[in-house]
Design a protein that fits this description.
Layout (H helix, E strand, L loop, with lengths): L7 H18 L3 E6 L2 H4 L1 H16 L3 E6 L2 H10 L6 E2 L2 E2 L3 H25 L4 E5 L6 E5 L8 E6 L2 H8 L3 E5 L1 E3 L5 E3 L2 H12 L3 E6 L17 E3 H10 L6 H13 L4 E6 L5 H7 L6 E4 L4
Helix pairs in contact: 4-5, 7-9
Length: 290
Amino acid sequence: MMYNEFTNAERAEVLTAALPYIRRYNGKIVVIKYGGNAMVNEMLKEQVMEDIVLLWLIGVKVVLVHGGGHEISDLMARLGKEPVFVDGLRVTDKETVDIVQMVLAGKVNKTLVNLLESRGGKAMGISGIDGRLIEAEMKNEKLGYVGNIKKIHIKPVTDLLEKGYIPVVSTVGCDREGNTYNINGDTAAAYIAGALGAERLIMMTDIAGILRDKDDPRTLIPELTVSEAAHLQGEGVISGGMIPKVNCCVEAIERGVENVIIMDGRIPHSILMEILTDEGAGTMVKGDKA
């Protein structure tokens, strides 16, 4: 049923049911890591931007951290440059890091800012280079300009939040010698959320969450602790590409984030489902109880 098919009474009931969640998150910081299919599909992209603007309008301090691997690969292909990956990381020579900066800090970042503004939000796009937000160093010489995060200088983000903006952050970093680095988006989001002491980090993916059986969405694990996640990793339940994603969840929690959600960004309005309902969406990873 579409919203405009609801009666006035049903609309009022929906809004009233959301009130406790609005109260809970009003004034709190929520970091959203945005990428994957939700970023490629134009209809989903518009819905994600609408969700973010709605949260901003009800007083949630949203920080959007984005990737753009698909766009980077597209531009590389147009320029006749073949992408190379080692252990899931893009080998980034000097020419490639220039492409990464152009795509992430330029086209993708400003497109998202424009979408948020066109839907009534007040957004400002920055990269990890601005204000030396993401200070980095070379991860491994064989990977080229792929960066490890050394330090987060969070003031550019907090300044924007204090001025009422939705910060939109592209994940390129820099060092003190002026080099630019390609930074893993999940890792950057975890560090930024930790530096902000965020209430919640939402990581949008292309799967339902953490599954006991990777081929059966019905086996979704709705909630688990850091120690339970380590146990499932040891059992092989958490494997492959989910391992670094879960490690980023643990990193965020250890840095002070209340909890982290791994959710399916392919589901329309999954962000609102997570923030404004009891059921939520995806898998919540939280710290171990004392």
